[in-house]
């Protein structure tokens, strides 16, 4: 901060540098090529909640596998059309159709055979199409290649779409930044940025690092990070994130995190993990595919060799039925039942600001029976606010708040920052405090103009002494809550936060009890050893908390709260949010024990937390979900999924989406198995024609994939 102040002072005090800096600043504001329109155009490429159908169709046609499949289909139709007139040319075009449509799948099948020494469905389909061609069924073989390539292209599109929705953020990674050093502006790599650096971000540019706006105002498109559809206004003191798009105004930004520690850097790591992991069900299917493929090949060879010897079939009849069986019994639809579904579900979740580190966690979250929330920073905002200020008759409200804020100004404790923030809101001056020191068992004290002010906990040792002194006094002094600082003859006035009238109470102990029952934390203030007043603070509930709990309860999911806070405060928050299971006074290891107990009692547990102290519980839960914006780096690293926009109301939606994905997988698998059994039985009992087998089998594969792609919506 000192460096920034010196830099700004140097820019403003030196006439030449000031002039140059102002010119650059004005040029940035009036940048002709980068303004609001360009910012909107640039942000249009970021993942958002809505995507046009035309754009999706265009993207599908741009997929290389889709182009090859469609090319194969067009050539198949041309060859079929000219076959009666130009037989030789027709065969040549068929061969070209085989090559264009089947090359990718044949390559994958051969690689599996050579590298893994295993069979897969790709090799089975290529073998079946070539077998059909050898007995003169060129069109049927080409149709098999076309439909198989089309189904593969659809699956490839699902994978590509999922990766694009998750990792399109990588394209937004800034490469350089404009850093202000000694009044000069230098272009540096973002890897060289350090906390405390001052940057200039021009209109339409990407924010290069996480930071705080030091000067200027603008709107920021944060959809790439938070999923918010509308730009957010930012001014001095507001937080900004790397990878977001600046709007019309130029901003001076003070860097708060290095490139590796930024929220954007954490997202990149999440993307890499998400793209590398597959669900357990898919791993099983991949193992099953190899075994099943061997069985199909074995039965096919048995039909070709054994049927003429045992059943008296002709070789052509046996080979034809074997090729039909090879087509209809291949597990294409079965293999495609899982990954397109999971990838589509992960993609739609990513667009709503929920990133999963792998499909396995999407599978697990579908079985959630209990959602366990950490309280502070998850159900609540994690930043306490001053709600009540109560003063003794000898002290005015402004005097008490100004003095306490002056003493607490250098402290980084959340309660201290809340008091300083309240004083700032009321435009009260901060005075110079001397001899500021922490008092063990109480809080903090300091001297202002020779007067000693002490601030501390309700259960502190100094407060205990003050309580005894007050009990010894016979004077009955009235405490008054007053927003103006004027004591109104001990009569009730309005509270600063909740506008509730409080009757004047001579019994300060009753006042403390009432405030504690409201879930508030109380700080006691004394001046020169005399009781001066109380300041009550409370962590405010997230706006979405009540609705989030209601949605989860309506789905049959129990909601628990795990907190290290006191039971009384925890019960107040639980009562206001509707949480049914409350566990308070928990240390980090106690949270782990409680999560394990919930798993034993109810089953799958989703733990939602934001702090370092939540990391063990996140790891112990079936699925751990970290808060992306407010969460610590440790919590995000340990978590299996990250709520990038901190909107806990989306948790119910993602559980519902995961359950929908699970149902879709089951429907796909039953449908695929039914089609395989029906076509296989029909081949031997009713003499199914090869074209019908091709259409039935590959058609079922396409239907299964399209059914999975529905979850993209």
TrEMBL record:
Residues 172-272 form the P-type ATPase A domain. Keywords: ATP-binding, Cell membrane, Ion transport, Magnesium, Membrane, Metal-binding, Nucleotide-binding, Phosphoprotein, Translocase, Transmembrane, Transmembrane helix, Transport. It comes from the Bacteria. It is found in: Cell membrane; Membrane. The chain crosses the membrane at residues 68-101, 121-154, 291-313, 319-343, 669-686. SUPFAM superfamilies: Calcium ATPase, transduction domain A, Calcium ATPase, transmembrane domain M, HAD-like. Pfam families: E1-E2_ATPase (PF00122), Hydrolase (PF00702). Gene3D superfamilies: Calcium-transporting ATPase, cytoplasmic domain N, Calcium-transporting ATPase, cytoplasmic transduction domain A, HAD superfamily/HAD-like. It is a multi-pass membrane protein. Belongs to the cation transport ATPase (P-type) (TC 3.A.3) family. Type IB subfamily. PANTHER family: CADMIUM_ZINC-TRANSPORTING ATPASE HMA1, CHLOROPLASTIC-RELATED, PROBABLE CADMIUM/ZINC-TRANSPORTING ATPASE HMA1. This is Cadmium-translocating P-type ATPase.
């Amino acid at each position: 901060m000192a460096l920034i102040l010196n830099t700004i002072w140097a820019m403003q005090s030196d006439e030449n540098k000031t002039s140059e800096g102002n010119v650059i600043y004005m040029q940035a504001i009036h940048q002709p090529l980068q303004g609001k329109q360009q910012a909107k155009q640039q942000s249009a490429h970021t993942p958002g909640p809505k995507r046009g159908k035309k754009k999706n169709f265009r993207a599908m046609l741009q997929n290389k596998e889709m182009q090859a499949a469609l090319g194969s289909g067009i050539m198949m139709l041309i060859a079929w059309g000219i076959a009666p007139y130009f037989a030789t040319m027709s065969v040549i075009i068929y061969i070209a159709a085989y090559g264009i449509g089947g090359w990718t799948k044949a390559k994958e099948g051969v690689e599996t055979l050579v590298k893994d020494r295993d069979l897969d469905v790709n090799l089975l389909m290529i073998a079946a199409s070539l077998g059909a061609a050898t007995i003169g069924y060129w069109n049927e073989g080409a149709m098999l290649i076309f439909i198989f390539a089309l189904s593969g292209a659809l699956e490839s599109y699902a994978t590509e779409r999922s990766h694009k929705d998750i990792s399109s953020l990588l394209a937004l990674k800034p490469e350089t930044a404009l850093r202000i050093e000694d009044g000069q502006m230098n272009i540096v790599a973002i890897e060289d940025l350090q906390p405390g650096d001052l940057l200039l971000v021009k209109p339409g540019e990407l924010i290069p690092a996480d930071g705080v706006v030091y000067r200027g105002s603008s709107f920021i498109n944060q959809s790439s990070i938070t999923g918010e559809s509308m730009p957010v206004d930012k001014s001095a003191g507001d937080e900004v994130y790397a990878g977001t798009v600046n709007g019309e105004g130029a901003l001076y930004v003070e860097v708060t995190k290095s490139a590796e520690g930024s929220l954007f850097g954490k997202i990149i790591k999440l993307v890499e993990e998400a793209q590398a992991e597959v669900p357990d069900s898919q791993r099983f299917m991949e193992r099953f595919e190899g075994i099943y493929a061997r069985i199909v090949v074995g039965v096919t060879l048995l039909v070709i060799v054994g049927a003429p010897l045992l059943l008296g079939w002709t070789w052509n009849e046996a080979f034809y039925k074997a090729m039909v069986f090879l087509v209809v019994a291949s597990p294409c639809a079965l293999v495609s039942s899982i990954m397109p579904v999971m990838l589509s579900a992960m993609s739609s979740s990513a667009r709503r600001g929920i990133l999963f580190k792998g499909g396995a966690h999407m599978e697990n979250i579908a079985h959630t029976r209990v959602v366990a929330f950490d309280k502070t920073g998850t159900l609540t905002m994690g930043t306490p606010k001053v709600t009540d200020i109560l003063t003794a008759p000898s002290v005015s409200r402004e005097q008490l708040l100004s003095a306490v804020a002056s003493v607490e100004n250098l402290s980084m404790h959340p309660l201290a920052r809340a008091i300083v923030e309240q004083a700032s809101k009321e435009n009260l001056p901060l005075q110079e405090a001397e001899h500021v020191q922490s008092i063990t068992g109480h809080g903090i004290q300091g001297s202002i103009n020779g007067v000693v002010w002490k601030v501390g906990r309700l259960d502190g040792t100094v407060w205990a002494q003050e309580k005894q002194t007050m009990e010894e006094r016979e004077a009955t002094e009235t405490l008054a809550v007053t927003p103006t600082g004027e004591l109104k003859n001990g009569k009730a006035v309005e509270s600063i936060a909740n506008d509730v009238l409080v009757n004047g109470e001579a019994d300060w102990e009753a006042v403390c009890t009432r405030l504690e029952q409201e879930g508030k934390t109380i700080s006691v203030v004394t001046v020169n050893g005399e009781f001066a007043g109380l300041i009550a603070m409370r962590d405010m509930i997230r706006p979405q908390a009540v609705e989030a709990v209601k949605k989860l309860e309506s789905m049959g999911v129990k909601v628990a709260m795990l907190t290290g806070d006191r039971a009384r405060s925890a019960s107040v928050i639980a009562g206001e949010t509707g949480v049914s299971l409350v566990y308070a006074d928990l240390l980090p290891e106690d949270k782990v024990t409680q999560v394990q107990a919930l798993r034993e009692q109810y089953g799958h547990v989703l733990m939602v937390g934001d702090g370092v102290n939540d990391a063990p519980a996140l790891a112990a839960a079936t699925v751990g979900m970290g808060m992306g914006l407010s969460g610590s780096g440790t919590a995000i690293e340990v978590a299996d999924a990250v709520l990038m926009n901190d909107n806990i109301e989306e948790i119910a939606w993602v559980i519902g989406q995961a359950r929908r994905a699970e149902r879709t997988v089951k429907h796909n698998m039953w449908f695929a198995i039914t089609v395989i059994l029906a076509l296989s039985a029909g081949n031997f009992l009713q003499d199914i024609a090869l074209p019908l087998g091709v259409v039935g089998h590959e058609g079922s594969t396409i239907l299964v994939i399209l059914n999975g792609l529905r979850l993209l919506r």
